Amino acid sequence: MSLKEEIMEYVPINEQEEKDKEYMLKCFSDFDDVLTRNNEYVHFTSSGFVVNKNRDKVLMVYHNIYNSWCWTGGHADGEEDLLAVAKREVEEETSVKISNVLYNGKIASIDTLPVVGHVKRGKYVSSHVHLSVAYLFEADDDTQIRIKEDENSNVAWQNIDEVVSLSSEPHMRVVYEKLIQKIKEMK
Predict the structure, then answer these.
(1) pLDDT in tens, 63-109
(2) Can you tell me the distance from the alpha carbon of 56 to that of 32, in angstroms, rounded to the nearest whole number?
(3) pLDDT in the model for residue 121
(4) Are 27 and 34 in contact (CB under 8 A)?
(5) Taking the model in full, what pTM does it have?
(6) Could you count the other beta carbons within 10 Å of the beta carbon of residue 84?
(7) What is the CATH number of the domain that holds 97?
(8) Phi (first) and psi of residue 62, to 5 degrees
(9) Within 10 A of 142 (CB to CB), how many other CB atoms are there?
(10) pLDDT tens, 7-60?
(11) pLDDT on residue 65
């Protein structure tokens, strides 16, 4: 199934997701390339919201650019299988291996996320929008974690009830609240 088809099948849980779904589908028709960073205005990213087996902790990284605790994730960079992208980003950013893909491997959240202009690897990146697709994963919280120094300055399992307050990005708090609610409904 193509990414566009996956998004078309996604059932929004609120008005924000309804609008963001419409926006994402419109971007497929308005832009030639939304899967790479060659599109400087909008491009797809994929993130993993990783919980432990007890589902009381979330794997978080302290992101160097955003100066905030956040989920793992990255750019599609031409790949249409965003579930694979999200899994790879978890491992690259933390060294943690996914033990279980939750939510039947389906998209758990869609969001259009603003990115403020910033410097990355010595080059200025203009403000743009991430077309964010997120997945829910489970991993062992006893495995060794590591910092990916070019992207984050800390990695830790955080109490699920503190995740929202750890984020310094108001637009991300709403996303984390949605995902935490989905996790709690799965228990």
Answers:
(1) 998 899 999 999 999 999 999 999 999 999 999 999 999 999 999 99
(2) 41
(3) 84
(4) yes
(5) 0.95
(6) 13
(7) 3.90.79.10
(8) -95, 105
(9) 8
(10) 999 999 999 999 999 999 999 999 989 999 999 999 999 999 999 999 999 999
(11) 86
Token pair of 37 as six digits:
């960073």
Q: Which residue has the tokens 């799965």?
A: 186
Tokens of 15: 């008005």
Counting the structural domains of the chain, the total is 1
Rounded to whole angstroms, how far apart are CA atoms 140 and 57? 10
Tokens coding 151: 């992207």
Output the pLDDT for position 31: 95
Distance CA 136, CA 163 (A): 15
C-beta of residue 127 within 8 angstroms of C-beta of residue 117 = yes
- Which pLDDT belongs to residue 66? 86
Please give the pLDDT value at position 120: 85
Inter-residue contact 157 to 58 (CB < 8 Å): yes
Q: Are 56 and 160 in contact (CB under 8 A)?
A: yes
State the residue range of the domain holding 49: 3-186
Backbone angles phi, psi at 83, to 5 degrees: -65, -45
